[in-house]
Write a structure and sequence with these properties.
alpha+beta; 16% strand
Amino acid sequence: MSVQSHLETTASALVLSESEKGGISTSISRLKSKLSENFGDSEISEQLQFGSSTRGTQLPRKVDMESDIDYMVVFKNAESYKPQTFIEKLKQFAETKYPTSEIYRSYPTVVLELNHIKFELVPAYKGPWISNNYFIPGPKSGFSEWITTDPNGFNRGLIDKNQGCNYLLKPLIRLVKYWNAQNGYIYNSYELELDITNASYWNCSTLKDYFYTAIQNLHTWNLSISDSNKVARAKEIIQNAKKSEADGMPFTAELEIKKLIPEL
């Protein structure tokens, strides 16, 4: 074994299994049907799955208990209601249609937690001028009740960048998200994916190269002292692994990397 083979093996193991994909697909189909039945065409115009589950970067729940399906429910909103109205509608829907499941508000979403997957239901309405322009609830600390978003805009950029990175960007994202989950979610999952995608990877040709660069690029802005120390430790491990490789000790380098990316 080597650092390269360990990272490749682990990245492959972090892909959702066919049974997981099947269970998620079934749950989404049921959710869509229940939403249509509950609200009808008079209230909702569209339903959209978005987020990491549409990008191929979602982690299995065995390694990431925060793994979820982002699901947008697009209301017609002819009355110009505020976000709280739709959040409450979705909460009532979930309590009625999924009475035995855990349901709670996590502004600006409603979380529906089933046995095998968690849904984050996001209320939205469609912008009148741009086809991909949707309005979703703004953050509580913000000045706008609604903010605009293109729910799958990031996907297109990731596809292009992944192709330009020898199709190693998605495996890289899964590895770094695995490390993030193992360390108590230092970074927001979406923002972490965005940072990894937007980074530069000069002279990188293997998954190991990309992983080393991604860890060394991790920022510590606005992190707690504890989280900053975790990031510093990760960067130190990378340096130790590089030194071991330079000294002709690949097995020692692999042991170092397994401190960051444990075997599955």
